[in-house]
TrEMBL record:
It comes from the Bacteria. Residues 2-133 form the BFN domain. GO terms for molecular function: nuclease activity. It comes from Paracidobacterium acidisoli. PANTHER family: VON HIPPEL-LINDAU DISEASE TUMOR SUPPRESSOR (PTHR15160:SF1), VON HIPPEL-LINDAU PROTEIN (PTHR15160). This is Bifunctional nuclease family protein.
C-alpha cells in the first residue's frame, strides 16, 4: 500500500548540517524525514518558493526532456528503505504506456514538484523509517521538529544515504 504525502518543508540536520526534506501524511500527520544533498535541497527549495533560475537547472532539464518525449510524470513513489538508503520510482505515461524509472528520492521529489504530480511513500518504508508523529494539535512547529531531530540517537541522525 502507498500513502500519499506532501512536502512539509526543509530543515538542516543539526548533527551533520545536511538538508532534510520533511514529507507529511495529511491523514495521520506523520512526518518522514529524508536526508538529501545540498544541490537537490536547493532544487526543491527553489520550486517550493517558485523561484526561477536564469537557465534551466538539471531538474528543469529533466522535466523538459520528459515533455519533449511526449511523456507525463504521473507520480513518484519512495519504494524502499534498504541499508539506510531510500529508493524511489518515477512513474510516467508515454504513448499510453506506463513507464517506471529508478531514481534517488531527492531527484524524484524535485521532479514531482516541477511536474505537479503526487508523491507517495510505500507503507513498508514508513514502518521501517524513523517517523515523527505530529503533536495532538496536528500542527508541529519548526521548534517541535527541531527538538525531535535533536533527540534522535547518533544511530539515526545522518544515517540515511542520499
Amino acid at each position: 500500500m502507498e500513502i500519499e504525502m506532501k512536502i512539509r518543508g526543509l530543515m538542516v540536520d543539526p548533527s551533520t548540517n545536511m538538508p532534510i526534506v520533511l514529507l507529511r501524511d495529511p491523514e495521520s500527520d506523520a512526518i518522514l524525514p529524508i536526508w538529501v544533498g545540498l544541490y537537490e535541497a536547493n532544487a526543491i527549495a527553489m520550486e517550493v518558493e517558485k523561484a526561477t533560475a536564469t537557465r534551466p537547472l538539471t531538474h528543469d532539464l529533466l522535466k523538459n526532456l520528459v515533455q519533449g518525449l511526449n511523456a507525463q510524470v504521473q507520480r513518484i513513489v519512495v519504494t524502499e528503505l534498504k541499508d539506510d538508503t531510500f529508493y524511489a520510482v518515477i512513474w510516467m505515461v508515454q504513448n499510453g504506456e506506463m513507464v517506471a524509472v529508478d531514481a534517488r528520492p531527492s531527484d524524484a521529489l524535485a521532479l514531482a514538484l516541477r511536474s505537479d504530480c503526487p508523491i507517495y511513500v510505500a507503507e513498508e518504508v514508513l514502518l521501517a523509517a524513523k517517523v515523527l508523529p505530529n503533536p495532538a494539535d496536528s500542527q508541529a512547529s519548526a521548534q517541535d521538529i527541531r527538538n525531535w531531530l535533536e533527540n534522535l540517537g547518533d544511530e539515526d541522525l545522518g544515517r540515511y544515504k542520499m
